[in-house]
Amino acid sequence: MSTIFEGFKAQYARTQESELSLEEYLALAKRDPMVYASAAERMLAAIGEPEVVDTRNDSRLSRLFGNRIIKRYPAFHEFYGMEDAIGQIVAFFKHAAQGLEERKQILYLLGPVGGGKSSIAERLKVLMETYPIYALKGSPVNESPLSLFHPDRFGDTLESEYGIPRRYLNGIMSPWAIKRLKEFDGDISKFRVVRLNPSVLRQVAIAKTEPGDENNQDISSLVGKVDIRKLDRFAQDDPDAYSYSGGLCLANQGLLEFVEMFKAPIKMLHPLLTATQEGNFKGTEGFSAIPFTGVILAHSNESEWQSFRNNKHNEAFLDRIYVVKVPYCLQVSEEIRIYEKLLQHSSLSAAPCAPHTLEMLAQFSVLTRLKEPENSSLYSKMRIYDGESLKDIDPKAKALQEYKDYAGTDEGMTGVSTRFAFKVLSSVFNYDQTEVAANPVHLMYVLDQRIGREDFPDDTRRRYTEFIKGYLAPRYAEFIGKEIQTAYLESYAEYGQNIFDRYVTYADCWIQDEEFRDPETGESFDRASLNAELEKIEKPAGIVNPKDFRNEIVNFVLRARAGSGGDNPRWTSYEKLREVIEKKMFSNTEELLPVISFNAKASAEDRNKHESFVARMVEKGYTEKQVRLLCEWYLRVRKSS
């Protein structure tokens, strides 16, 4: 038999019920506390131990998290940029597992559309399937065997003989169990216990409830109702005539997900209060309360939450909600990882995606979600939020915490959703009629078109369009220009290093007021000649204070040499000088034009240079068609600027 069939059969066998006596159950509970663990404890165990990260050892993380030690949970490793929300969710389950106030509260995820609330809910439901539950055999509400024992009468005995703490006894038997107990004439040994595996598919200890039509929706979707097909055999208030199909019945000892909770009428939410606060709820008939020891997870958008919160009649309910905000991702690097995950799970995973495409889309998305800072550039704020250091680039850039304090707690709750970005990305990959591929130029076209079609307010539409024209397009022109120029220069890295080494040598001699003799040519340079050579590099870059700049560079290189056995650092290692050298290298770009243009070539030499250039661009991750498109776009931008 094939391995896949054997594996499926073995997995199915593991998920089947196993039966034991009540005495065997108590003996098992004595050995293993997970046998009677609460839903929060089982969830916490399923989430597992976190990976502890000391952010002091990573410059980017140290800027993002202020050198704190942070925890990352492998169970949520694909939830990029959600560290704060995940931390709060884990804290909820930890406190609930400890028997604190959170065990009586509804876990409520609050966030904008497409922010990841439903994905978190789905992951929590999957995690709830990890550990089995033990229930009375035949119980329609997954009733714990411990519900048979009243804490006042049996609490001490169970704790002394079996080590089961009194807090696990809720003192409430279901109407079904009360009827069975009467049939057994009080002999609880006749109850059998089954080991059940929580299952989303079979609705075992995991259920979902959604608000329906406001005109006819009632609490039966939560608490169940009478099964009219059984009324010919049982009285209406008989527990066996009841259909335990409500979400609270199905999700006992597990997890109930309430989708868009605050769209439901308030009368429908009342059973949730008693279920969480008292551990039981009333059905629609006149029998006793039904026990509930599960977790209620709700989520909705901010508009529903605001209208519900502003209603004074809902104060009692508000006090019983544990709110976790799930904003949009505000880190460009993490937003890119979200897009990469999307592409991996689609047929586009193998389609060409030109460099900077996902980064540009992520930058646009994050820019729409950020609040405009005071006396600073929004683009710089975006880079600071991504953990960059702009100390040498933008003197007006502020510290991360300063930006956050000014923005307030609601930052990230508005802007374009991840779903919006996904739809844009789909259009970009399919923009060309003959090639399924994505590039930043097509991305800007699609974004501009989509912004025009969406129902945005006029000021929002203008603001989003300005992000493309004012931030993304100019910076992409710089990026693709550098890509083209580096592909044009075959020995780009070696050329840059030679300029770097020579500049450092000249600057050092100039500072020391020493004459320099070139070991290769024997040519001698006095201080004036050295200054002239240095200015050839500095002037194209617009260095306004060359003396300070030279001292800064030489000091940096001397420190770097001390830590690397006397070797010069790479020419790209110091941002300021790297930019200076690149401007020197590319100050004369006219010679680029015959090589990068796709017009007919005048000579075989130009044709060979062009083919070599295209080949080097392809090595960088572009298709030949993209090289042509991007070069033509770059030349148009250069001509118009």
Short description:
This protein has 641 residues and is an alpha/beta fold. The model has no long low-confidence stretch (mean pLDDT 88).
What does this protein look like?
Helix content is 49%, strand content 9%. It contains 27 helices and 16 strands. The strands form six sheets. It has a five-stranded parallel sheet. The protein has a three-stranded antiparallel sheet with strand order 1-6-5. The longest helix has 31 residues, at 458-488. It is elongated and about 110 Å long. The termini are far apart.
Q: Secondary-structure map with pairings?
A:
Blueprint: H1 3-14, E1 18-21, H2 22-31, H3 39-47, E2 51-54, H4 59-65, E3 69-72, H5 83-97, E4 106-110, H6 117-128, E5 133-136, H7 151-162, H8 175-183, E6 192-196, E7 206-209, H9 220-223, E8 225-226, E9 242-243, H10 247-250, E10 255-259, H11 266-277, E11 280-281, E12 290-291, E13 295-300, H12 302-309, H13 315-318, E14 321-325, H14 332-344, H15 357-369, H16 378-385, H17 400-407, H18 418-429, H19 440-453, H20 458-488, H21 492-512, E15 516-517, E16 524-525, H22 527-538, H23 546-562, H24 575-585, H25 593-596, H26 604-619, H27 624-640
Parallel strand pairs: 4-13, 4-14, 7-10, 10-13
Antiparallel strand pairs: 1-6, 2-3, 5-6, 8-9, 11-12, 15-16
